[in-house]
Model the fold of this input.
Amino acid sequence: MSNMPAKEVLERVYGETEKSGARYLHLSECFKENFGDAEVEFFTSPGRTEMIGNHTDHNGGKIVAASISLDTIGAAAANGTGTIRILSEGYDMIEVEIAKASSIEKKAGTKALIAGMVEAIGKFGYAVEGFDAYMTTEVIGAAGVSSSASFEMIFCAIVNAFFNENKIELGDCARIGQYAENHFWLKSSGLMDQMACAAGGAILLDFADDIKCEKIDASFDALGYDMVIVNTGKGHGDLSDEYSAVPKEMFAVAEALGVKRLCESSLETFLEKIPEIEKKLNNDRAIMRALHFYAENQRVEEAADALTRGDGKAVLRLLTESGNSSWKWLQNCMSKSNERDQKVALTLALTELYLKKLGDGCCRVHGGGFAGVILAVVPKNKTADYVDYIANYVGSDNVYPMQIRQTGAVSLGK
Done:
């Protein structure tokens, strides 16, 4: 079939053409079956890994994140109408009439997400018209590798290519996704997930003043390690309140410091004022979370430098410190709503025991936390052994060895 991404494009994005080619052929056939015989364009949007900088973006912090080799892919064609129709494999067709998008009920779900992006695209001064799309994804849902942001960024890539001559910049794509989540999904997400999915490769993000995004030449592969994402068996889809409490408490500390975000003050000032903030807020957890913010920001800068220098030992040490801070100071490795369910903490403990025997590697909570996934960094010659070991506890379907992917959310052509 001629209507397929070029082999050299697949090779560049996936490092192979057979498996990826079969996926896009399947997309093409499914699009034709459901939408008819239009000339389609193909799109891809990766999931993301957050290496370091856990829960800092909303308060103007810094993060090292990267696109990963699990992605959402789509075949799409403009349909000349005012309606967007998206069929994601395994789900029902979703239709959103562009003119009525703003009146769609605000709640969790893909329809509300699409409506929010449509509204944001208009508010940001860009164009959106009707299109049909068939999508399928490898990105794990409700587990901290940003299946929602991956979807949002493939949506933006489609709208950008079809109706905006690719003039929507990465930062605006990220803001469009964030707007939809904040105002239509009613979830207080930051911008990190969207930026990491959109940009490709490893990036150092600084959210203090607008969004600064700096590419880092980083590869665990080159350092002799694999990343392994482990889904601990419980999604975080029902934990929005706990997830939202993290930025809320950090904002409360910032307000007590006389600023809007923690980045506008310093650790030194904060340490001086802790006694009075303690009296004002009566919330020790908020103070702990703010301490995590300041310590984590410093670690991020050191980790970006270590990755650039290829200093594997420093990278592992900093990722370990970050994971410990998330567990102890930020406290997002277990849910208060069900304290007996501690899948993230348990999987981290089992992984720590394994890595201690090796004397190498590291592990940490991944993404929003409370439930979902962990990230392990394992020496390449031990990856298969670790996968077998941890699969005994979580099942082989929940263990994903991967590398950093250099391609962000893009069109792969017709």
The longest strand covers residues 62-78. The first helix runs from residue 7 to 14. The CA atoms of residues 249 and 286 lie 5 Å apart. The chain has 13 helices and twelve strands.
